[in-house]
Amino acid sequence: MGTVSRLSARWLPGATLGAACWLSSGGAQASPSADELLREAHVHEGAREDDLALRRYAEALALDPTLGDAYLGLAAVRIRLGDVREAVHVFDAALSHLPDLAAARLGRAHAQRVLGALREADLDLEAYAAATDDPAALRELAGWYAEEGRPLAQLAAWRRLLERAERDDGDAPLRREARLTVHALEVIVGTADPVRAPPDEPHASAVRRAMARIEARR
């Protein structure tokens, strides 16, 4: 059974699942299209008719498993209902079909963090920030690193923010903040900083290795 079929089996009652399977196996010509089902799902979601929204999203995906907005809507409803782990499964399915769907990676990062999977959340947010060059994502990532006690990673994120701000002449406030934060973090990490410390200095290398081991345990 494919990913979308598994999703449908989990979220749809038997009668609706049977209808979705019929749609995907040849009866779809006389039935609503995936886009029409998606529009209906959005309406139900907006009206907080969550059961109907879940059904329509799953039916749309049964017809078109590459419908990115359906995955995002389905996950949003699951999160609103408190089913964060189920939302992660939806994001997993979305990224298996649409690996470049950045919004799904961002959503999975936030869901993983809620579940306490901090390293997995970090990796997803890192990938999202790298793909989008989004300063808000980089700032959030730096904040996560600070909460996790990872100053070297935090410094790297702020350096990326500074680099981006210096490319954008219109973002003077961010540029000032990034410069101050980078300087403060450079003072904190000292010789553990692989960018500023001499690579062949024995003491610096030992400190960097110790810091790396500390961060890896967090």
Note down, in words, how this protein is organized.
This protein has helices spanning 3-11, 14-24, 34-46, 50-63, 68-80, 84-97, 102-114, 118-132, 135-147, 151-167, 172-189, 202-217. With 218 residues, the chain is mainly α. The longest helix is centred in the C-terminal third of the chain and has 18 residues, at 172-189.
SSE string, helix = H, strand = E?
HHHHHHHHHHHH
Alpha plus pi helix count = 12
CA(first)-CA(last) distance: 38 Å
CATH-defined fold name of the largest domain: Serine Threonine Protein Phosphatase 5, Tetratricopeptide repeat
Low-confidence stretches: 1-28, 210-214
- The CATH homologous superfamily name of the largest domain equals Tetratricopeptide repeat domain
Mean pLDDT: 83
β-strand number: 0
The helix-and-strand class reads mainly alpha
What is the C-level CATH assignment of the largest domain? Mainly Alpha
Largest sheet: none
**Broad shape:** elongated
Q: What would CATH call the architecture of the largest domain?
A: Alpha Horseshoe
Into which percent range does the helicity of residues fall? over 70%
Radius of gyration: 22 Å
Work out the strand percent: under 5%
The number of distinct structural domains comes to 2
Provide tags for this entry:
Serine Threonine Protein Phosphatase 5, Tetratricopeptide repeat; 218 residues; 2 domains; disordered N terminus
List the helices and strands and how they pair.
Layout: H1 3-11, H2 14-24, H3 34-46, H4 50-63, H5 68-80, H6 84-97, H7 102-114, H8 118-132, H9 135-147, H10 151-167, H11 172-189, H12 202-217
Helix pairs in contact: 1-4, 2-4, 3-4, 3-5, 4-5, 5-6, 5-7, 6-7, 7-8, 8-9, 9-10, 10-11
